[in-house]
Specification:
about 475 residues; alpha/beta; FAD/NAD(P)-binding domain; Polyamine Oxidase, Chain A, domain 2; Guanine Nucleotide Dissociation Inhibitor, domain 1; 3 domains; SQase_HpnE; Amino_oxidase; FAD/NAD-bd_sf; Phytoene dehydrogenase; oxidoreductase activity
């Protein structure tokens, strides 16, 4: 059978691959998306459990996720998320009144957080003042400096005289959920990216957004529609087994045939990328294994009645880390559905589901008075053993550049060297950067007689459109 030819083959249908494919197809390239799973969306997807729509993970975003929000607009789903008008997080603790961490309107950064930190009741007055000094010091940590990546966030906090209670009751609320690892095991550079970009540089940047629909309805299904409208070939259940350079093209051997492409975006997780990357493209791809992975576990509890008014909340001094009200998004018709998201959860992977459910049921009863008399109508656990790469000190040197030594081959994925943590924003940024690299290659080879006439200078200018929108968040 004759192999089909395309300008670009995008290997992987997660957010990075979706972003790259749409950006290039918008610019006029002929694109084939090859995804081994039966659906698009990568790690952000939903499944059905009876009448419920269940997301495997509880993904939130911040206002500073400019590339991610631009992708939602392109997918036509920006109206399916809700975004706070100001950063506001309820903080729950057993036996304590609900406390709120919220920014003050009208104050510039970083003063917008001053009242919240000075009034943060879970800390002593001395701890609050020291936390303010640590926040000021974080503003001057350069997230792009190699030296920052060699230090841990825990080392930084120790140097700033942050008590264990301060770290546990304040800093970990953001750090663990954003980096999926505790402060002692987290890169200071990546932590600085989170805190500086999201909370300390712009007053509005840290406002929290979350989906109003399931993740598949937010990303995967609209992406398939948009790509179809653009004439992109989308092949699911199509596992790429090998990629080799063949003259001026790439030959991709897949589970259902061969594909020839002038260029390739390799947008799969780093273990798969290390197996697939062609010889001569990068040095020491085997080192990508050192990025490793960390887990996220979600405990899903359905109650026979509403037990809280909080759409989401953080918890301290509790086995609960973050809880989310999933009632509306899931389609539950009565009662309330809460999902507890547990990051840095490697130790929980082998614990029995019944044990995790009982622990979280009891913990929620200690946090939420309404849960104490309520009955569970259903409960289950979802586990993501490789939810993110391990965002530890030294990972900067392990994360490869988007462009490779082979012209026409680009890498994408939240694990690539974007300077961002493993987040939806990092994934989309990597996809956009890969599209720009491929646009350069296609433009530079436009004089090739086999090049379609619609490629050339126009594809580069189009693919880069909107790139400046992301600059303020860097």
């Amino acid at each position: 059978m004759t192999a089909q030819r395309y300008d670009v083959a995008v290997v992987g249908g997660g957010l990075a691959g979706i972003a790259a494919a749409i950006r290039l197809a918008d610019a006029g390239a002929t694109v084939a998306m090859l995804e081994g799973r039966p659906r698009l969306g990568g790690a952000t997807y939903s499944f059905r459990r009876g009448e419920l729509t269940v997301d495997t993970g509880q993904h939130v975003f911040l206002r500073c996720y400019t590339d991610y929000l631009a992708l939602l607009r392109r997918l036509g789903t920006a109206d399916r998320v809700e975004l706070q008008d100001r950063f506001d997080v309820p903080v729950l603790a057993p036996g304590r009144p609900v406390h709120r961490l919220r920014r003050t309107r009208g104050l510039p950064a970083p003063l917008h957080l001053l009242p919240a930190l000075l009034g943060y009741a879970p800390l002593t007055v001395t701890e609050r003042l020291r936390a303010l000094r640590a926040a000021a010091a974080l503003r001057f940590v350069d997230p792009d400096a190699p030296a920052s990546d060699e230090r841990s966030l825990g080392e930084f906090f120790a140097a700033q005289h942050q008590s264990p209670d301060t770290v546990r009751r304040l800093w970990e609320l953001v750090a663990v959920s954003a980096l999926n690892v505790g402060p002692d095991g987290a890169s200071l550079a990546l932590a600085a990216r989170v805190f500086r970009t999201g909370l300390l540089t712009s007053a509005r940047a840290g406002d929290i957004g979350r989906p109003r629909v399931g993740l598949s309805a937010l990303h995967a299904d609209p992406a398939a529609r948009v790509l179809g409208e653009l004439g992109t070939t989308v092949r699911t259940r199509c596992k790429v087994e090998r990629i080799v350079r063949s003259g001026t093209e790439f030959l991709l051997s897949t589970s259902d045939g061969e594909v020839l492409a002038r260029s390739v975006v390799l947008a799969v997780p780093h273990p798969a990328a290390a197996r697939l990357v062609p010889a001569g493209a990068v040095e020491a791809a085997q080192r990508w294994a050192e990025l490793s992975a960390t887990a996220i576990v979600n405990v899903h509890l359905l109650y026979d009645r509403p037990v809280t008014e909080h759409g989401f909340a953080a918890a301290i001094d509790s086995p609960v880390q973050w809880l989310f009200d999933r009632t509306r998004e899931s389609g539950l018709r009565s009662g309330q559905y809460l999902a507890v998201s547990l990051s840095a959860a490697d130790a929980l992977l082998r614990r029995p589901a019944a044990e995790l459910i009982a622990e979280q049921r009891d913990a929620l009863a200690a946090l939420l008075p309404g849960a104490r008399g309520a009955q569970l109508t259903d409960a289950f656990v979802t586990r993501e053993p490789r939810a993110t790469f391990r965002q530890a000190p030294g990972t900067r040197a392990l994360r490869p550049a988007t462009r490779t030594a082979l012209p026409g081959l680009a890498l994408a994925g939240a694990w690539v060297g974007t300077g961002w943590p493993d987040t939806m924003e990092g994934a989309v940024r990597s996809g956009n950067a890969a599209a720009d690299a491929i646009a350069d290659h296609l433009g530079s080879s436009a004089e090739n007689p086999r090049s379609p006439t619609h490629l050339g200078g126009s594809i580069m200018s189009t693919a880069r459109a909107g790139a400046s929108d992301a600059e303020p968040a860097r």
